[in-house]
């Protein structure tokens, strides 16, 4: 009996040692280089993020402005790249005349002087709107950007033409699979070299459609992110990469990262071998996904010499702090 117990203990010890050696980042090759910075919406006006719902008008909760950039504009995107972003995220909505508008909100009422569903308008109609109309930091007493955003809502084509060699992350705001079909047609018309610089994330249904029609594009959805992270936590110790972690964008909240086998370098190497890219986020606290790495304190939670991706809403600050 004692011999069996001793053999069992030895077997467990050998197994534990094998798991450790297979997953410790200490024995993984270190990824050289600077972090890859992703600027969410370019340079944007910040807002009070407490108690947000899907219907919250964030323009009406703007914090006192530190600059005059309006998100999702050519000027904002350019400023994001100039501040050190390697990738800029933009939001798209289809228009009634077959284009894609770069704009965040599902409706026009919050930020603009327009009304109704964004996708229920033509691009010409939206070009006539003032996208700075609704921003206020004092409860509606003043509107500092009113009148400055007329004609500033770009099309996806304009963004692609203005930044032909820059990396972009396109956010599909709907759950409509037909939107995935329309966006896939736009992407498939690009050159192979340009397509390599594009990623797409958003609703499960349009993203699945893009995966099918434009399989070379890296994509992500809430469903794929959940499947990837849970699968990896569950059996990533084997070295087997879940299918959901291949050819995708993996978002990793900083408080979830320590649970990932081989974090950071072995994890990053495994994702790279699966043709995937990783971006660290702010802490996940349940409900909606987490915020970005927006403060020096959150940046300090990443490993020393971390060279993966960083998602931020404060590219002008994080770009300087990360050395980009």
Automatic annotation (TrEMBL):
InterPro entries: GP_PDE_dom, PLC-like_Pdiesterase_TIM-brl. GO terms for molecular function: phosphoric diester hydrolase activity. SUPFAM superfamilies: PLC-like phosphodiesterases. GO terms for biological process: lipid metabolic process. Residues 51-322 form the GP-PDE domain. Pfam families: GDPD (PF03009). PROSITE patterns: GP_PDE. This is Glycerophosphoryl diester phosphodiesterase. The lineage of its organism: Bacteria, Pseudomonadati, Pseudomonadota, Alphaproteobacteria, Hyphomicrobiales.
């Amino acid at each position: 009996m004692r011999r069996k117990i001793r053999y069992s203990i030895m077997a467990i010890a050998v197994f534990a040692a094998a798991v450790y050696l297979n997953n410790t980042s200490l024995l993984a090759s270190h990824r050289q280089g600077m972090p890859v910075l992703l600027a969410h919406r370019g340079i944007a006006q910040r807002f009070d993020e407490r108690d947000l719902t899907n219907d919250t008008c964030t323009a009406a909760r703007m914090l006192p402005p530190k600059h005059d950039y309006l998100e999702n504009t050519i000027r904002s995107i350019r400023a994001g790249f100039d501040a050190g972003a390697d990738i800029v995220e933009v939001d798209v909505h289809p228009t009634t005349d077959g284009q894609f508008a770069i704009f965040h909100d599902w409706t026009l009422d919050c930020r603009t002087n327009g009304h109704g569903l964004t996708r229920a308008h033509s691009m010409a109609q939206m070009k006539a709107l003032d996208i700075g109309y609704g921003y206020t930091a004092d409860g509606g007493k003043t509107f500092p950007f009113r009148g400055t955003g007329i004609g500033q809502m770009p099309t996806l084509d304009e963004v692609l033409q203005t930044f032909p060699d820059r990396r972009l992350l396109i956010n599909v705001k709907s759950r409509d699979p037909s939107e995935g079909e329309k966006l896939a047609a736009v992407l498939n018309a690009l050159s192979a070299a340009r397509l390599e610089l594009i990623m797409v994330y958003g609703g499960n249904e349009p993203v699945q459609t893009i995966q099918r029609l434009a399989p070379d594009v890296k994509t992500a959805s809430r469903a794929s992110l959940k499947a990837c992270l849970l699968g990896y936590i569950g059996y990533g110790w084997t070295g087997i990469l879940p299918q959901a972690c291949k050819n995708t964008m993996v978002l990793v909240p900083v408080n979830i990262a320590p649970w990932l086998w081989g974090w950071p370098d072995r994890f990053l190497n495994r994702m790279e071998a699966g043709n995937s890219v990783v971006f660290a986020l702010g802490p996940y606290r349940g409900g909606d996904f987490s915020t970005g790495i927006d403060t020096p304190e959150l940046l300090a939670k990443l490993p020393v010499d971390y060279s993966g991706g960083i998602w931020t809403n404060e590219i002008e600050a994080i770009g300087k702090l990360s050395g980009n």
